[in-house]
Amino acid sequence: MRYRLLGRTGLRVSELFLGTMGYGEASPEVRRVLDLYAEAGGNVVDTASMYGESESVVGELLQGRRDRFVLGTKYTPTRDRTDLNAAGNHRKNLTLSLEQSLRRLRTDYIDLFWVHVWDRHTPIEETMRALDDAVRSGKVLYVGLSDAPAWVASRANTLAEWREWTPFAGLQVPYSLLQRDVERELLPMARALGMSVAAWSVLGHGVLAGPGARRVRADSLGERERAMVLALAEVAGELGATAAQVAIAWALRGGVHPLVGASTTGQLKENLAATDLELPEEAVRRLESAVEFELGFPRDFVDAVDASPDIYGDDLPRLDGR
Predict the structure, then answer these.
(1) Which intervals hold domain NADP-dependent oxidoreductase (predicted)?
(2) Which residues contact 28 (CB under 8 A, 6 or more apart)?
């Protein structure tokens, strides 16, 4: 396992994050999965307030070794469906959700506290100031944003910079060979602002995991999914790897941190092997061309303009560092 810095911080995080959404009990197998992940060098454990018993299970599993892990959890979703203020990204829900998560996780601080989803009904200024207060209190060390538009993240971090608040160090988004929408705005934004990217659903909700591991029936796949599954199988066969390993290796190649949600040690061993898999450029081209994907406006337009001498003149190709 290799490591990267979290955003523009000095925190070292492993290239694969361990997702624990499906952890309903601290079973012997779940404990073995966490042990195997740690033995391989993994150090980021990701959960959320809305993942059922996951926070409580993670808290139990980390007893006696909590400080060795970068522990992340999320807030936004409701704590009580009958209370309108028990949900959202406002200060009240943030404060009470954080206290609830600390109790469930059996810890006095969260390494990485994520806003789970953009709340259009709460000013981003309120959220960023409340998050900064949580950091200053010592209950949170770093903050991240999940499932939000690029302009929201950009505005949030610009406010944080101007007002000397804690900026978002990480961004969490869905990303896979079947779902590359984030390449249009979110990934370029994250690179420009120095945010680490955690990718969920890198296996396309099981579609890209391979025939033996899929939770969906092959005859339920659409034409687009079948084309990608076929391309994955061909590349995997040529490389002596599994489809899941190729899909994860492709995401790693793009600089993101795949969230692997293994429920058995067998699944985790397969996922971990992806970190050593080198994808040839020709294989990457085949995978990315297997299904149609267009960046769309403005990215396609700006790329075309960038190559036009009518805009920047004849000598632009001689400009280094473009």
Answers:
(1) 16-291
(2) none
